[in-house]
Amino acid sequence: MGRHLLALALALLPLACGGGVDLSNAMGYCDESQSILCDKVFACIPTSAQDQAFKDAFGSSPSDCKTSMVVATCANAAARCATYDAKAAQQCIDALDALTCGDLGSGNATPAACGAACKP
Fold first, then answer.
1. Is the pLDDT of residue 33 over 70?
2. Which of these, 20, 21, 38, 63, has the minimum number of CB atoms within 10 Å of its CB?
3. 39-74 per-position pLDDT tens digit
């Protein structure tokens, strides 16, 4: 399951141009989607399965993950999001929130709305 989660998380990185976050712009979407992703990955992957590849991708804690992923992924969110759809962004965030560890472990859990929220 760990490999599927790592693959999903890495697949979601380019999709994110992205409680109580401003989704009216690409940066807010990016911050929130990365925050959810970090929380999900650390909740779903047991510490014993958090190998070096995992730590290289996500850091050693949810807060470490949020800091590094937001900086790495969201720095140019507005530039990478030529077309931003706030409604699709909210649907993506809702779908990400609803994902279970089983969904993530399936390797096919990228919500469709996430691809519609931010397009180059």
1. yes
2. 20
3. 999 999 999 999 999 999 899 999 999 988 777 888
Would you say 83 and 25 are in contact if contact means Cβ atoms under 8 Å apart?
A: no
Tens of pLDDT, residues 90-120: 999 999 999 889 888 776 667 888 888 988 8
What residues contact 116, with CB distance under 8 A and at least 6 apart? 85, 88, 91, 92
**Structural domain count, the chain:** 1
For residue 81, which of 44, 29, 42 has the smallest C-alpha distance? 29
Classify residue 81 by burial, with Cβ atoms within 10 Å: 0-12, 13-18, 19+.
buried
- Rounded to 5°, the CA angle 51-111-84 comes to 110
Q: Tell me the pTM.
A: 0.77
Residue 31 is part of which domain span? 2-119
Q: Report which of 90, 88, 81, 86 is spatially closest to residue 118, judged by C-alpha positions.
A: 81
Is residue 9 within 8 Å of residue 37, measured between CB atoms? yes
